[in-house]
Design a protein that fits this description.
Helix content: 25-40%
CATH superfamily of the domain at 133-221: Helix hairpin bin
Structural class: alpha+beta
Order of helices and strands: HEEEEEEEHHEEEEHEEEEEEEEEEEEH
Shape: elongated
Number of helices: 5
Largest sheet: 6 strands, antiparallel, barrel
Length: about 425
């Protein structure tokens, strides 16, 4: 039996409300479309995520393969041999080759002062003359005493001759018994006494002659002369000044310096002193004379290092014919010391500091080899070494921290570096 569903009366919309008259079939179709769209969007998102993950995985594998097969490029510099001559520059002060302080050797008053500060003198030239009249009297007295001693000597000789004649005449008589033995003894001893008197008189003459020579030498000291060619750097006396001749407290009159040759004293450090020898060339630089150098030569070395500073005292002679240099100037001395053992220069940028000390990375056939070096001198941008490298070795500049021994590298060419 078929029943018909009663038709419900449509509800009337209340006044002021909109009526929804959408059919049920349209609502169902809209829900199915929304669900299908959601499924499509979810699938697209899942596919995009899977593709991204796959792409990232491929990128990681490519990066790992690239890193595994990557050969870095490095900058290198060739090891060069150091100069055969080591240049050592040291501070110094110039001094005169010869310097003498002139003291008075005769007591008296200055009668003549012939030179002043800055005067150039020759050897034997008069510097000053001392007036000492009492010295002339002493010389006259000594000469008179010497004459008196000469007469005494002649008298002693005459007495000796008389005693000799007497003994020669009495000796045969004593032997024959005609003269007593007592008289013979007296004659013999008298001759010996006269001979001794002659010796004493001769010794007195010699002593007085020596004393007279001393006085005459002091007379010569009244003329103060230059002992060598040079110039006066100090004067302490003037005309009328009283000077004393004494070994310990004599009057200081002049200072004379020789300037044709200037010398300097430098203290060479121990690392350079072992190769230092007389005859090595040196160059002196004076800051106030920038456009000129003064060549010199090492002439004397102490042959023993000073224990406090571990330095070797060295003297350098510098010819100074035009008197451009004076004593007391601050200067720098450049010593050119020949090397006994070969050494090499490397760039300071190539040094690696690690637990093994100071090393460099040497490239040989594209392979890195670490070598330990021994540094002799630090020259700033360059280092001087004597072991670990050889001439022509290619060392890496500014090596990376992850560079390992045995790694493969490529040497960067000049164009690539540019």
């Amino acid at each position: 039996m078929k029943f018909n569903r009663p038709i419900e009366p449509e509800r009337l919309a209340e006044p002021g409300q909109n009526q929804d008259v959408t059919p049920r079939g349209q609502t169902r179709r809209g829900g199915r479309l929304a669900g299908f769209s959601l499924i499509l969007i979810s699938g697209a998102l899942l596919a995009a995520g899977a593709w991204r993950q796959y792409a990232e995985h491929r990128e990681v594998l490519a990066t790992a393969e690239q890193q595994r097969d990557f050969v870095p490029q490095v900058r290198v510099a060739a090891v060069e041999p150091a100069d055969q001559v080591e240049v050592v520059e040291l501070p110094a002060t110039t001094s005169a080759f010869a310097s003498a302080n002139i003291f008075a050797r005769a007591s008296g008053y200055i009668a003549i002062r012939a030179v002043d500060i800055g005067d150039h003198v020759k050897a034997g030239q008069l510097l000053a003359e001392i007036n000492a009249p009492e010295l002339d009297h002493q010389i006259a007295q000594a000469e008179a005493t010497l004459a008196q001693l000469n007469w005494s000597y002649q008298q002693a000789q005459a007495n000796r001759e008389l005693a000799k004649v007497t003994w020669d005449r009495d000796r045969p008589l004593v032997d024959k018994g005609w003269v007593t033995a007592q008289q013979g003894t007296i004659d013999e001893q008298t001759l010996k006494a006269q001979e001794a008197a002659v010796s004493v008189a001769q010794a007195n003459i010699t002593a007085e002659q020596a004393q007279l020579q001393v006085l005459r030498q002091q007379k010569l000291y009244q003329r103060v002369v230059a002992p060598f060619d040079g110039f006066i750097t100090q004067r302490n006396v003037d005309v009328g000044s009283l000077v004393q001749a004494d070994a310990t407290s004599g009057t200081f009159m002049f200072t004379l310096q020789q300037g044709s040759v200037i010398r300097t004293q430098v203290f060479v450090p121990q690392d350079a002193a072992f190769n230092l020898r007389p005859g090595i060339a040196a160059i002196v630089h004076v800051p106030e004379i920038p456009n000129r150098t003064f060549p010199g030569t090492v002439t004397r070395i102490a042959d023993a290092l000073q224990p406090g500073s571990r330095t070797l005292l060295t003297e350098v002679d510098i010819p100074n014919p035009d008197a451009a240099l004076t004593s007391g100037i601050y200067c720098t001395v450049e010593l050119r010391i020949p090397r006994r053992t070969p050494s090499f220069q490397i760039s300071a940028d190539a040094v690696i500091f690690n637990a093994k000390g100071m090393q460099v990375a040497v490239v040989a056939n594209g392979i890195v080899h670490f070598r330990t070096i021994h540094v002799l001198r630090d020259l700033g941008r360059q280092l001087e070494v004597d072991s670990g490298v050889e001439r022509g070795d290619q060392i890496i500049l500014n090596p990376s921290v992850d560079l390992a021994d045995g790694a493969k590298v490529q040497i960067r060419t000049t164009s690539a570096a540019s």
